[in-house]
Amino acid sequence: MSVFANLPKPAVAPKKPVSDTRHGITRTDDYAWMRAENWQAMFKDPTLLDAGLRRHLEAENAYMEAAMADTKALQKQLFAEMKGRIKEDDSSIPMKDGPFAYGTAFVTGGEQPRYFRIPRDADHRDESQRHLLLDGDKEATGKDYFRLAGIDHTPDHAFGLWGYDDKGSEYFTLRIRDLSTGEDLADVIENTGGGGAWAPDGKSFFYTLQDENHRPSKVFHHVVGQPQSQDRLVYEEKDPGFFMGVGGSLLDDFIYLDIHDHETSEYRILSTKDLTAEPMLVAERVEGIEYSLTEGGDVFYILTNDGDAKDFKIVEAPVTAPGKENWKEVVAHVPGRLILNHMAFARHLVWLQRRNGLPEIMIRDRTTGQEHSIAFAEEAYALGLQGAAEYDTDVIRFSYSSMTTPTQLFDYNMATRERVLLKTQEVPSGHNPDDYVTRRVFAPSHDGVDVPVTLLYRKDTPLDGSAPCLLYGYGAYGISIAAGFNTNCLSLADRGFVYAIAHIRGGKDKGFQWYEDGKMEKKENTFKDFIAAADHLVKERFTSYDRIIAEGGSAGGMLMGAVANMAPEKFAGIIAAVPFVDVLNTMLDDTLPLTPPEWGEWGNPIESLEEYNWIAAYSPYDNVGQKPYPPILALSGLTDPRVTYWEPTKWIAKLREKAPEAGPYLLKTNMAAGHGGKSGRFQRLEEIAFEYAFAVKVAGKM
Q1: Distance, CA of 386 to CA of 288 (rounded, Å)
Q2: Catalytic: which of 29, 165, 311, 640?
Q3: pLDDT (average), residues 547-558
Q4: N or C, which end of the chain has less CB nearby within 10 Å?
Q5: Rounded CA gap, 387 and 397, in Å?
């Protein structure tokens, strides 16, 4: 008998057919009406949502609540477990910068971080030394949603630029705070990307403005004390397919304008010696060529895939003439060794690379050229490279964790090679790594390629096919899912689950080719890799098909929709968070925030029949049929600018229409949040507890 027995009747969505013809092909969409005509305005003010749409979303939420009513106690238990693993009054190890060290802290019961600073050499454990700069809980008071964009201090440490989003729509408001008094100046900068770059004198800063279609298309220069309307336009990106960001250098000598899509990049730089000058082009954009800059004194160090360096190399160029004709190789391209990012300091060049699926930090002495690495011995682990806030230093900071090892934070002296453990993540409710097993197995995919799968389970979990499994996947944009410590998934492992991460194509887990083999015309490799991972886990008796719950979000939600269509019988349940499932309609609508920048990832079905057909072949919404779908939980955010609320709403309606006897299909729309869900640290745990409760229920483990 189904675990979802005696449900009320679900919400019924009316059908209002809208036809669209492209390349001589006519498609009819019965649920196109779910896209609010005033979506741009609604993202900024959710009260403007059409009343009929609101009623439908609320009816879906009511049906979802009825279906999950018997999990209320379980949700509370899961939440308590997850919260119990978090040190509530935790604080960071402050990062030294000039006369101060800057850090963040939480208070017991607090949802938002507090930003503070201490004298440079003060004991960070002495709270009397802390000067509070920004109290996130105070700023969030009275708001249903609140997300901080951090605070960035001026070079003279007098002021801080901070930003917040109180709608979930990712339109950030910027304020300027006097760090000595804690008072904000009168300046209010609205509709920004969330951050900025200070000029060296601390009297002005640069920021990106989001346009009406939520694209960061303009960089402005704001002088403290003047109204936003008087800000000077520094650069406008005319191509809607490109994102733009702005940042500063550790040496405060340049402002960087980073212009890029998913496969092409271009930098323009502005010398801080003349803030009114036109930004200087470094190397003009060439389709498929990526590069990024970091300061190196009299040179720039440039990470690039130019010259067939598929897994990237590092070159240098004079700051006075950084054009491509002056690029000189420093770190050669090595096939299979993917360089992920780089940074430079007065005496050392540092980069993070991945080889054989594992991360490694490399350090080169800029004078001698001698190199050494920081690596670890576990089967699967994660490294984070934080670097330093100062240029003239020999000490950088990095983090290490694995699925069983809590996060450890180190300071590392690049000259002496001394490693100092600063902090180990505390798990207040207790954690014994020896109770768990981390493994890395390889699943053969449809074309013979081995797909890495990271596993976590308790040592006493029977590996006879009886264990339930939560199989997570993403597989897009070259993003790799790190095999790092995750206290939340311990709640599943402690209930007998095998927790698995499938490192499928579309990420860069096995190099840049791994990414290219999971995009555009090769996108279906992503889906087949995930199914292959499920097959392998069943074959090796880690689990069984009727015990696998698949999970993915955003582009990983597309993955969930695709595998549901391709192999519904191989999953006991599916969790699709903010799922990008209406791929063809979205890629055909160039007014949506992310459509033009996404064409390099999925294809442009407006211009190309071939690319139209690629997308049409797998787009989850377009391929829903009468199939034995398992229970599906879709999660959505009303003000989400990345995956708009109507995508999962349409998908659930169509699933219910085409396969009414399967499912059930549950839609949870957060009416006061966007792409990332709720913003507070414990509010977010409530959402994870809800998702895990669905998994436990479907697995029959309540």
Answers
A1: 28
A2: 640
A3: 97
A4: N
A5: 5
From the candidates 153, 214, 342, 675, give the one annotated as an active-site residue: 675
Furthest C-alpha separation in the chain: 73
Which DSSP helix (H) or strand (E) runs through 41?
helix 39-44
> Once rounded to an integer, what is the mean pLDDT over residues 581-585?
97
Residue 295 clears pLDDT 70, i.e. is over it? yes
Q: What is the DSSP letter of 287?
A: T
- Report helix angle 681-698 to 72-84, nearest 10: 130
| Cα distance from N-terminal residue to C-terminal residue, the chain | 15
pLDDT tens digits, one per residue of 363-394? 999 999 999 999 788 888 999 999 999 999 99
Q: Which is the catalytic residue, given 204, 265, 491, 554? A: 554
Full-model pTM: 0.91
Q: If you ran DSSP here, which 8-state letter would residue 221 be given?
A: E
Tell me which residue has tokens 């599943």: 492
Q: Where are the domains of the chain?
A: 19-84+431-699, 91-130
CATH annotation of 19-84+431-699: 3.40.50.1820
Whether the Cβ atoms of residue 282 and residue 255 lie closer than 8 Å to each other: no
CA distance 398 to 380: 17
Q: Reply yes or no on whether 640 is catalytic.
A: yes
Q: Is 2 a catalytic residue?
A: no
Query: Is there a contact between 113 and 101 (Cβ–Cβ < 8 Å)?
Result: no
Pair 197, 251: CB distance under 8 Å? no
Confidence check: pLDDT of 170 > 90: no
With cut-offs at 50, 70 and 90, classify the pLDDT of residue 609.
very high
Q: 675 catalytic, yes or no?
A: yes
State the burial class of residue 180 (Cβ atoms within 10 Å of its Cβ: 0-12, 13-18, 19+). Answer: exposed
**Interaxial angle between packed helices 595-602 and 609-618, expressed in degrees from 0 to 180 and rounded to the nearest 10:** 80
Average model confidence (pLDDT) across the chain: 95
Amino acid letter at 435? D
Give dist(CA 570, CA 284) in Å, integer: 48
- What does the alpha-carbon distance between residue 400 and residue 5 come to, in Å, rounded to a whole number? 45
